[in-house]
Amino acid sequence: EGLIAGVDYSMYLPVPDSVKAMTAFNAYIQYGAFYTGNTGLQTVYLTFTVATETGYTRTILDTLNSRGVKAVFFVSLNDFLASIGTDTAALLRDIIASGHILGCHGYTHTQTSAMSDIRFVNEILMFKSRLYDVRGYDYPVRFYCPPYESPVARDVYLSRTMGLRYVMATNLYLDSADTYTTEQAYADMVGHLRNE
Q1: What pLDDT, in 10s, does the model give residues 19-60?
Q2: Which of 2, 16, 127, 135 has the fewest beta carbons closer than 10 A?
């Protein structure tokens, strides 16, 4: 795994041994991750994780916009931009222009627990750099949701060190499962809701 020229890795590394020994839950607390909320409030935060564009993102975006609802779209940028059949760069610009938040879901949609520390740092740096190339100016990426939602204390620490708040999804739904009926999809979603 190579180092990216011009990057001062000492700003992020090494990961302290105390972090390596920490549980993900303790890292959530110590580094201000979003993993739960005020259970007294009846608030839903809509988040969408997008690795590759399967044709649903534009419909979701248009539906949210028509109802005045805002959401966070966590995108695996390299995989998303490589999707065929959609102008994904324009879709990213539309997500941001519509007032939604664009979050980092990695540069590639890769399980982070097996990554080296340098590879993890590079994933976030490459995400930000490629987003700049698409947008033409810096966009303040503020949130990180890991691919496969795998909680690792190191990831919580490094994302925070790199200026991102770690977000742990509380419900996963695979929108590309062609075998689901609308009723099955609804039952699956409702069955996995948690009041944390």
Answers
A1: 999 998 899 889 988 876 666 777 777 888 888 887 888 999
A2: 2
